[in-house]
Design brief:
This protein is α+β, with helices and mostly antiparallel strands. It has five helices and six strands; from the N terminus they run ααβββαββααβ. The structure holds zinc ion. This is HIT domain-containing protein.
Length: 206
C-alpha cells in the first residue's frame, strides 16, 4: 500500500491509484461495449475539492435554461419543458426540465408529484417514432444545476446500444438527416400535447 494522504475526504478516495491507468479488460468483449483491441485508459485524475460550481449554481456560470427558457423547446406545459437540440446519431435525444430553476433535492412537491407521469409520457411519445425500440432516460446533472433528465431513443433491434454506452454510440453513429430529426421532434411534441401542454413548433421549422 502506498501513502494515504490524510486530506482526502474518505477511505474510498485514499484507496484510489491516482495518476495510474486502469485496465480496460473488464469491459472488452462485453456486448454493450463499443470498442475492441488495445485500448489505453486515461490516467486517473486527482479529485477536485471542493468541486467547482455547476452552471446555474452560486458562484458558477449562468444557468443556460433560465437564460433562454424557450430555446430548443419542442413541448411545454405549466410545469415542464422538453428540449431537442439538433440531429445526432440516435432517432432523438431530448431533455426534460422544470420551467423554474430547481435541483432534484429541492424540487417542490407539486413537481415531484408529476415527475413520474411526465417521464412516462415522454418515454411513450419517443417510442412512437417508428425507428425506436425503447426510450432510455438518465439523470447525471454534473453540468447544469437546473434539474434535467436526458432521454435517448434506442433504435429498434439495435441490441449493442442497450445500456449506458448508448451515449457513446450517439456520438459515433452517422447523424440522422435534418428533415427526419424535425419530423421526429414534431411527432413527439404532438404525441405529448394530446395529453396536455402544447407542442412548440420552432425546432427545425422550415
Ligand atoms: Zn435554471
Amino acid at each position: 500500500m502506498t501513502e494515504l494522504p490524510p486530506e482526502l475526504p474518505s477511505a474510498y478516495h485514499r484507496r484510489l491509484p491516482y495518476g495510474e491507468r486502469m485496465s480496460a479488460e473488464p469491459l472488452i468483449g462485453s456486448p454493450f461495449f463499443p470498442f475492441e483491441g488495445d485500448l489505453q485508459v486515461v490516467p486517473l485524475a486527482d479529485p477536485v475539492l471542493p468541486e467547482p460550481p455547476r452552471r446555474g449554481a452560486d458562484g458558477g456560470p449562468p444557468c443556460p435554461k433560465c437564460a433562454d427558457p424557450d430555446g430548443s423547446v419542442i413541448w411545454r406545459d405549466e410545469q415542464w419543458t422538453l428540449k431537442a437540440f439538433e440531429p445526432t446519431g440516435l432517432p432523438l435525444v431530448a431533455i426534460l426540465e422544470p420551467r423554474e430553476h430547481y435541483r432534484l433535492d429541492n424540487l417542490p412537491p407539486e413537481l415531484t408529484a408529476t415527475l413520474g407521469s411526465v417521464i412516462q409520457r415522454v418515454a411513450k411519445a419517443i417510442q412512437s417514432i417508428d425507428s425506436v425500440g425503447r426510450t432510455h432516460f438518465n439523470r447525471w446533472g454534473d453540468g447544469s444545476e437546473h434539474f434535467h433528465l436526458w432521454f435517448l431513443a434506442r433504435p429498434l433491434g439495435m441490441m449493442q446500444l442497450r445500456g449506458a454506452m448508448i451515449a457513446a454510440w450517439d456520438d459515433m453513429l452517422p447523424k440522422i438527416p435534418a428533415g427526419e430529426f424535425t419530423a421526429n421532434t414534431r411527432l413527439v411534441a404532438a404525441a405529448l400535447a394530446k395529453d396536455g401542454g402544447e407542442a412548440v413548433g420552432s425546432v427545425g421549422a422550415e
